Each structure stands twice: as structure tokens, then as C-alpha cells.
Queue: 2 jobs
Job 1
Amino acid sequence: MSGAQVDVRNVRKSFEHGRISALVDVSLHLDEGELVALTGPSGGGKSTLLNLIGALDRPDAGEIVVAGLDVATLDDQARYRAETVAFVFQFHNLITTLNAVENVQIPMLGMRPRAERERRANELLGEVGLGDRTRNYPPTLSGGERQRVAIARALANEPRLLLADEPTGALDSETGAQILDLLRRVRDERGTTILLVTNDDAVAAQADRVVQIRDGLLSSSETSALQAPS
Ligand SMILES: Nc1ncnc2c1ncn2[C@@H]1O[C@H](COP(=O)(O)OP(=O)(O)OP(=O)(O)O)[C@@H](O)[C@H]1O
Ligand SMILES: [Mg+2]
């Protein structure tokens, strides 16, 4: 399955009855299989934008189209979240009472039979270099290993778009670089489109393109040419 094309057009999002403008007017296009880094100061709107693209929240205005689906008005957002898009966060959000292979199976619950879930979870852990740690519980894994489990879990249902919010933010720079290598490999081998929030210049430099968001506005020269006329 190929990566998703993403079109964000003139999106606005405010909080607290309009007192806080998190996104003022954001337009952004991602090609299939593009790896784009999203940077910018704290509070600039990075997580808000990711959450809207991932249908965790809805925009006040504008349009978000992912793989041909109008995300903001989608009838079945749960299905979109289960099948098209996946998240990786700064803190891996693994369930500590489940081992690695059980954690990776979570998104597949109710979607695939048990034997297939297990086989696939083991296979994914092998792909992220944890073939020998499949029965470990999160507290017995290093930070980088936990993030690998989180990435394997995110890949469980073969998402066409991966949204990663500071996936290397809690890691030392060497481990962070390894996680980025892994994400690049995911992109190269699966064609997954990846939008990655980072404040680390070394991480951003590994992306195909860097876009910056500040005060709810994109401010990179690369994207301004792609923005829809407002
Ligand atoms: N649920 C919410 N309710 C109220 N305000 C919010 C909410 N979510 C975000 N905001 C506000 O919207 C603005 C953008 O926040 P956002 O989390 O998108 O920033 P960010 O770029 O991800 O910052 P950071 O780098 O610190 O994670 C901030 O002013 C924030 O306080
Ligand atoms: Mg954030």
C-alpha cells in the first residue's frame, strides 16, 4: 500500500472560545512517501496541526484531505484512525503491563484473528530490530527500544500516513538518530508518508523538507509556494 497524499487547506483552529488562535491559516501539501519535518517554537501549533490531520480533533475552518478522504467531515473517523493514519508520540504510550509483542497487537484487536496478530507483531518487532526482545515488558526496555516498539505498533495496520510528535524528544542524540534512520527506512520500504515534529536540527536535516510553524502560521519558503491562495 502506498503512502497518502495530504492536503491541508486554509485550516483554522482556536481554543477557549476563540481566545487562543492555535492555527491562524495553515495550508500544507505532502506528497505520497514524503518525509517532512515540522519545526517551530513551543506553542506554535505543531501538535494542534498533527491532531487535526490525525482526526483527533476537528478544525474550525478549512479542509484536510488525506488519501482522498475529507478528514474533518468524515463519517467514520474511527475507521480512518484505525486504518489510514497512525501516531507516534514523544513518550511511547506503551502499556506497561503488556509485553512488547502484546503492545504491538493492540491496534489489530478486533481487526485480525489472534494467530495472525501474533505472527504480524513478531514480524514487525523483527523489522524494528527487536526480534530478541519480543517478550520484554516496557520497563525492561531502553528508551530507544520502547520507541521502536511504539513504531512497530504504529505500523500494525499498515498506515499510509505516520504522524510523529517529537518521537526523538526524550532520547539522547545517538538514539534519536537511530529512530530517525528507522523512520526513513519505513518510508523507503513501505512508501509511508511521514510528518514528524522535531525541535532537533540534526533530526530535521534528515527530512526531505522542513516546514516551520510559528504563531499558528507556516513560515517556511518551501511551503509558501504550495499554499493555496487565501
Ligand atoms: N486543548 C487545548 N485547549 C486550550 N489551548 C490549547 C489546547 N491545545 C493547544 N492549545 C494552545 O494552542 C497553542 C498551540 O499549541 P500546540 O500544542 O499546538 O503547540 P506546539 O507547537 O505543539 O508546542 P510544543 O513544542 O510546546 O509541543 C498553544 O498556545 C496552546 O496553549
Ligand atoms: Mg507539541
Job 2
Amino acid sequence: MIWDDVRGRADQVEMFRRTIRRGRLASAYLFLGPEGTGKNLFAQRLAQCLFCTTIADEQLDACGTCSGCRQIQAGSHPDFLRIACPEGKREIPIELFVGSREARGREGLCHDLSIRPMASHRRIAVIDGADLMNEESANALLKTLEEPPSYALMILIAANPDSLLSTIRSRCQAVRFPALDLADVADLLIAQGMVSDPSEAAAVASLSDGSLATAAQLLDPQLRQLRDRLYAGLAAERFASVPLAKQVLAGIEEIGGDASTQRRHAQWTLRFGMEFYRQVLRRLSEPGQPADASMIPQAQQLASRLDAGSAADAELIMELFDRMAAAGDLIERMTPVPLCLEGLFDDLGRIQRQRRPVRG
Ligand SMILES: [Zn+2]
């Protein structure tokens, strides 16, 4: 089955299969869900099933070898149209819908959709990042959505439905793509060769929010280096606020990017820190349990220096966790990153000194 490697989407596959069997395929769908949850892959597989010349549409499968399948896989099917927000741009320009000023109405997705199919009985158009259409682009597409050619199937893909005009939304059937199961994210990381070690895959997946795109960001080598510096600092027998703050800030600086990118990396750092303390706490509450694959070794080290049965130690870790979470709120509220992190590490040191020293 062509859907075998598409994780967690059996319901959506079944919905389309039933709809096609009943002859009720709509002319426009809106795939909604966070980035990295397989919406594009699903749209491509759906198109392949509908363009496969050897398997009937209502079976919603594809042979993988006919000319239709091969053309979709090669990205060269004449009836498959796809546009997306150009690299580095914040909006999908109007030209992609209706052509350049000189060729207005004679080029672009809306024009191409008006041409009869060449190699099949449909034309399928995918608009990736439909939430990045500006008003002009949206209005151009709206005309096609209002009077679609009988052979047209339009798939709009959006992570942020609030950015879509309500007139666009109301003309599409919504299909939801919720976050993936963390186990599926871990499997996909391995299946796609992004990670080879299953415990590393589980650890990355646990922070991914069920998004393969987020997991891929987490695999950035510099971000991992930053994470490891943080873990080492948090687990150190003598917690050293000032050097740790310096190291983490330098790490964020080294990864680079604009202010909002640095803010995102600071946010990641805090989430790593929360995960670290969460694991210490879990270790303290279940001392007899064997460490699972996604356990952070440095968290285990810190937990082993604490008393598993001690309420005071559990409270200490909870207090550290809460302080880490509060820093995340500050970053969210646009507090400058250095101010936020220096204050955080200072407080983490103070809390540990006040409660009682973490024994070596
Ligand atoms: Zn085929």
C-alpha cells in the first residue's frame, strides 16, 4: 500500500476513500495542522492515487510503476500543479496565481487550472502555505474556488487557519492533521535516516510536539551542542551560574540568525532545561524503574546524587523546573534574552544554595 509509510493518518485515508467511493470528492480541501505533520506528503500521495492509471480511484492506492505514478514521483506530471511561498519571502506573490503584470491572466496557477487535463481526467493543484497568501492572492484564488472547473481538485495547506480569509475557508472542506504521536516521530526520524540511534530518536521526538519539522530543527548540530552544554551545567556538582549563563548565551550567539531566531533558540534552551528537570523528578519518584531509552544521562547523574524518597529534594527540583518555565514566559513576553537567561541561572544557583547544597 502506498500509504504504509504515512504515519498516523489512517483516518484521513479512510475518509478520502469513502468520499471517492460515494462520488463526493469536493473541488477544494483545506489541510490544516502544525508544520511537519505530513500534510504535503499526504497531498502528494492522494494525487498519485488519483493519477495512477492501473488502480481505480475508489481503492485510493497506487501501483508505483505506471506512467502516472512515475511522473508524480519525478515531479513532472502535467496535470499536477503546486505552488508554495518562495524561499525567503513572507507571502505567496500574486504572480504565482495569475501571472506577471505583462502576462496577467495568461500564466499562473489559476490560468493553468483552467486548462483541461492532458494526461488524466483531473488537474490537481496544491497550494502549500495557503495561510501566506496576501489579500490580492487570496482574492485571485477565490475566483477559481467559486467557479472551479469540473476536473479540478485544489488542496490548500495551512498551519495557521486564522490567517485565511473566511471566504476561502468556507469554500474548502477542512481536513485536520493533528500532531503526530511521539512514537511515530521517533520512527520517522529513523526511517528517514535523520537519526540512527533509537534512544536519541526517542529523546528528540519527546520534545518535538509531534512535528517532524520541529524534530528536524532540534537535530541541528549547534543546537545539540548548546543542549549538551546546558545539561552538563545543570548536572554539575558545583552549580556555577555565571559561567553557565555565559556559555549558553555564547552558544545562542554562535548559532546566529536574527533576533527572532535567537529568541527561538533561547526558548529551546529553556525547554531542554524543563525536560532535564522533569526527568530528574521522574527518576526520583520511580527510583526502582530502569532508565528508559530517552533518559538524559546527565539528569540521571543529578538524580543519583539526590534522595529518591526525600520530599525536600523533589520540591527543590520542582522549584528549579518552575523557575525554568517562568523564564520561558519572559522570553515569550519579549524580555531581552541575555537579561532573561542571566537572571534565570542566577536564581537557579540561589535556589540550590538556599534549599540545601546538592551533595557530591
Ligand atoms: Zn500507478
